[in-house]
Every structure is written in structure tokens, then in C-alpha cells.
Amino acid sequence: MIVITRDLARRFRAVARRCVSGRPRGPAPPVVVQARSGTLTLWTRTGDADLTYAGPTDGDDDTVLVPMAVLEAVEGTGPDPVELEVGPQLRGCARWSDRGIPRMYPFEALLPGKPHSVPEPPDELHLLPETFPTALHECGRTAARESTRFALNQVQVRGTSGQVIGTDGRQALITGGFQFPFASDLLVPAVPAFGTRELAGEEVRVGRTSTHLVVAAGPWSVWLPEDKGGRYPDVAAVVPRPVGGSVAGVDGRDAAALLDALPHLPGAGDEDRPVTLDLNGWVVVRAKDTQGGAVREVVLTRSPAAGPPARVAVDRKALSRALALGCHTLRLAGEGKPLIAEGDDRTFVSICLDPGLVVGPDPAAVRTPTDDRAARPPRPVTRERKPPMKTHESNGHTPGSRPDPPADAPDPLAEAEALRAALADAAHRAARLVAVFKNRRKEQRALSQVYSSLKSLNLGP
Fold it and tell me: 126-236: which CATH topology?
């Protein structure tokens, strides 16, 4: 007989359901429940990953192989014990108490065999930041649902560069800052198990076997089989370098306001869900109702933009995803280039939509500033020089007595620079004249001393 808790049955089944990439296929796998040397182990193998739980136990050594339906029948939210016992002819029974009422669930156990042996953990497990499971989860969300010529339905773990990458060909997420105990690049299934509450906040360790990448989070271990024959594009190499182009820094408060507004902007039901990202001194997100023609704008009044003006159409879900990931630095490298969103050790890339979907400024647009105290957005950054300021009085002259400077007046900055250079040259020449004068004074004093000496000897003229 082996004893588990109802809460453990619930948590193990919840994580096991998410150890599958995509929709579950076929019947639920059986679960090995094993007690050995004071350690309780639950292990199952799904179509995409293996899951192991290991914790202390006071029961006797035993091993049973039960259908996943047994855990579903006994699961609960409390620590109430569940007794699993298998008798002759593999007839099993689960017994527990629910609010003081005895319960019993009979089941047909399975005969354990070699395929049901709990795998041995790697020889070494190396400590990694707690953000590593999150990186696997978010990159898995970015991966493709179906396999193509490249294994885009998988996640790439790059040992040398310390990166985790996921892409579906239209979007890509690159997370970095990790130090892996291996130098090779791995392709592993994109399973959503790393986004579960059970694995959150636990100490994270990583190791490898000959066939699997093992990610341990507290008592849980997810075994990801390596795809040794899959091909994967060099995603990091196609990200444009941050040179030139337009860049905007989205304030955190503006990001939160925009995330709330994006689902309600016009065109949410259109194909590609387009919105226009307009960078021209500030950040404006604009959308148009294709049927009624109404235009709405969200002006991020706390978020400045620099560089040449740029205007592109993007999928609002991609923009929402970038902001939700904390990628608040937006870059537009130029026409035909993707949108680059950067955050702490994260880079989110999304292709821009057809330029024909771009919505230009509309005087009749309904404008919503993210800061209600701002009457209007800040002035756009332009390259034009401001006209010279006119004063009411200058040196006793009355207004209008001095003509305005001509259109081709010299550049004041250039004139000031030229004057500074001339003054520096004059100062240098003056210093040279002073040095020559001092040398001549020294020579005169020396000659005077010689003359005095000769005169004292009556050898002078």
C-alpha cells in the first residue's frame, strides 16, 4: 500500500496535462507511484515530455501503476491521505475521506514493466535563475503550432550564448542572460508546463542525459527529449541592429493604459487585427473602423520618441504581447523591417503588416491621452531650425526699427565656432610673443651683467 495526498494527486495531474505540446492526443498515460527508501515518486510519460515528482514519505516500499483516472477521482484541495492498494489479479482500490465521509474508488491496476521504470536523474544539476522556466514558457507560446521545414514548433536552447528562442516565422522571442552547463544548441518540445503555479517560485536546476534536457523546479522535474535531427533558423542573426531608425521608450504607466485600450480600438475583429504605430516625437497608436471610417487614437503622453518619423501597421496582439513581456523600448529600423521591442534580457520581434493598412492622422479622430492632465501631446521632434526670436527693445531701438535678418543669414552656431577658433589662434600667437619678449629680456640682462664685469676690469670700451 502507498499513501499520497489528495492535493498531490490534483497538482500532479494538472502539471501532467500541460506536458503536452498542443492538444492532448490519445488516452491519458498511466502513472507510476513508487515508495522507496523514504522517498515518494510519481512519474508519467506523455507524448512530449516526462514528469517526475519526488517527496518524502513514511510508507513501506512499494510500486503501483495506476491509470490517470485514479488521480482524477481522488484529487482534492487538502492534505487528506489517499491509500492506494493493489490486490490479486491487479485489482486495486483507492480509499480516502471527504469531509469525514469515507470514499472508495476501485480500479484496474497495470502490470509494471521495463517501459515504466522511473528514469535516473542526471549526474549533475546546475543552478539557474528562477526566470528560466518562464523563458521556456514564453518562448513556447511564441512557437508554431505545427511543424514545418524548420522545427518551429519547438524551442531552441543555445548553450554558448545563454539564450532561449521561440518563433513561428512571424514573431520571435529571444530571452538571454543564462549560463548553461553545456555549449551545444538544443531543440526541445514547447510544452506549457513551465507556466503552471506548481513550478513557480521554486529553485531551478538543469542537467542533461544522453537523450533529455532535465529541468528541475523544487520537487518537480520535466524531462524534455532532444530533437537531434531538427533544423532551426538563426533567429538572432536576422534581428536588425539598433543603428539609426526610430526608437521610443514606453513609460510603464502608458504601457498599462495601452494594454487596456487595445482590445477596444476599432478593427479588433478584422484580419490581422491591425493598429498603426506612429512615432513622431511621441508615440501614438491609431486604429480605424473599416466600415464606419471612425478613427481613434491613444496618445502615450509620457513616452518620447526619437529619430526620423515612422509609421507602420502591426498586429495589436503582437504589440500587446511585447508590452506584457516588459519590452518597452520600441524600434523601427526602416521600411520593410520588423518591429523590435526590447526589455531586460528579452527581445520580441514581429513583422509589420501591409503598408496599405497604415492609418494616417485624422483631424476628426477621437484622441485619448494616457495622462488626463496633458491637454495635448508634446511637440514632435523635427529637424527644422526655429526662426530667430524677435525682441521688443534692443539698445534703445524701438520695435520695428531694425530690419529682420535675411533668409540666408549666417548660422549663429557656425559664426560662434569661427569666433572661438579665431580667439584661440590669437591667444596662441600672443603667448608666443610673450615668450619671445621674455627671452629677449633675459638676453638683455645677461649682456648687461657681462658689460658690468668687463667695466670693472677696465677692459671695457
Answer: DNA Polymerase III; Chain A, domain 2 (3.10.150)
User: Is there a contact between 149 and 231 (Cβ–Cβ < 8 Å)?
Assistant: yes
Please say whether the structural domain 239-369 has been given the CATH code 3.10.150.10: yes
The predicted structure's pLDDT at residue 101: 93
Domain(s) of CATH 3.10.150.10: residues in the chain: 2-116, 126-236, 239-369
| Poorest-pLDDT segment among 197-206, 230-239, 312-321, 346-355 | 230-239
2.30.40.10, 3.40.50.12280, 3.40.50.970, 3.10.150.10: which CATH number matches 2-116? 3.10.150.10
* Phi then psi dihedrals of residue 234, to 5 deg: -85, 85
Tell me the per-residue pLDDT of 47-88, one tens digit each, with 9 for 90 and over: 899 999 999 998 889 999 999 999 999 999 989 999 999 999
Give every CB contact of residue 153 below 8 A, 6+ residues apart in sequence.
21, 22, 143, 144, 145, 146, 147, 190
Q: What is the DSSP string of 251-286?
A: -HHHHHHHHHHGGGSTTTTSTT-EEEEEESSEEEEE
- Collapsing DSSP to helix, strand or coil, 416 comes out as helix
Task: Report the distance separating Cα 59 and Cα 85, nearest Å.
Answer: 12
**Residue 24, all three cell numbers:** 492532448
pLDDT over 80 at 145, yes or no: yes
Q: Read off the pLDDT band of 146 (50, 70, 90).
A: confident
422 three-state secondary structure: helix
CA distance 215 to 127: 10
